[in-house]
Prior knowledge:
Layout: E1 28-33, H1 36-44, E2 53-55, E3 65-66, E4 72-73, E5 75-76, E6 88-89, H2 91-94, H3 104-110, E7 115-117, H4 121-136, E8 141-146, E9 149-153, H5 161-176, E10 180-185, H6 188-195, E11 203-205, H7 211-215, H8 228-236, H9 242-246, H10 250-257, H11 259-269, E12 285-296, H12 302-323, E13 325-336, E14 341-352, H13 355-366, E15 375-387
Parallel strand pairs: 2-7, 10-11
Antiparallel strand pairs: 1-9, 1-10, 2-6, 3-4, 5-7, 8-9, 12-15, 13-14, 13-15
Helix pairs in contact: 4-5, 10-11, 12-13
Amino acid sequence: MCPKLDPVPVPPGAAAASGPPEAVARRIVHLDMDAFFASCELSKYPELRGRAMVVGGRRAAHQPRLREDGTREFSLLRDYVGRGVLTTATYEARTFGVHSGMPTMKAARLAPEAVLLPVDFDLYRSYSRRFKDAVRSVAPVVEEIGIDEVYADVSALDADAHGIAVRLKAAVREATGLTCSVGIAPNKLLAKLCSDLQKPDGITVVTMADLPTRIWPLPAARINGIGPKASAKLAELGIATIGEVAARDEVWLVERFGRSYGRWLHRVSHGVDDRPVVTWSEPVSMSRETTFERNLHAVRDRAELGEVFTRLCEQVSADLQRKGYVARTIGIKLRFEDFRTVTRDLTLPEPIADAKALRRTAGTCLKRVDLARTIRLLGVRASALERADGAVSEPERQLAIDFEAGPGPSRPD
């Protein structure tokens, strides 16, 4: 039998874990839009509803063409030639094993009759703003964590959890015409886990008492922060589920995963997460990158590479100025034909945001790289940020720029 102070029943062999007293009263929501990019496209092309459809790349050739009878003709995956990756896929396409981040040529083999559309970031940004404004109309405290997902603290709302979820979903549907999945739990960790349990268009409410039946049976890799290497090591130790991690005591985990990560594994496997919902925090860096449709050579494709490099610098500069920042450290990222990735950076005595100065500094970094092999990816990054008005930023978390300059994988939705 568990001690009375334990927040959840503890599986055999596990040590007790408890969070702060105030965590029990918290109600945190995670809202995740369903197949967001694809859903935005379906709002523009409703005739594709119910069909397998994917989004990827920016090729003009993939734009729908208007027939003489007024109907639209769409590109199909079977006709795709290149090496881009998918940004998203409808749920109908996912039944064929297609998913975001998959190479488009592989997706074409799995679902050749699926419709292929180019990405439309202006459309997605517009829907993202409407989605987040709708959430704010219901929830008092909202944290943006991506273009299509947010956390909200609804502890102060005078309503039951399911009723709050219904209100949030209705507000989002009215503002966007799209669906979202909602998880409500005592903290961010559990809210994010449970928002995925009944996708699409689902509502999942989890309490600490539900841990053994709803959370512990899930694969350990479902926890954000348990990546491929940790999953592989857990598998070697005979551990597959979150509950099996929770069944190990903290000392055992620390011995095998190190002090910091072992302690973290022990806490999260017991559903303990004290992080607050943060309405705003300073960025650590801003970056832009693009994956080329074909490998480019530094000499033979110098003009094309130079044009892309300049555009990336201009985009980073625009991001800095729009957000009101300057940067002391400018860096580049290159991925070569053999998938080897290198980075170089340079820290300046004075911060910059001007596109020409940024391009000049990034070019200096580029001279420090052996460019004998062809290049498949190029990126530019600005870090060590300061407020343009003179206030130094606090590096609380990295600002992820959701919109790349070219084809590339996106986060799964």
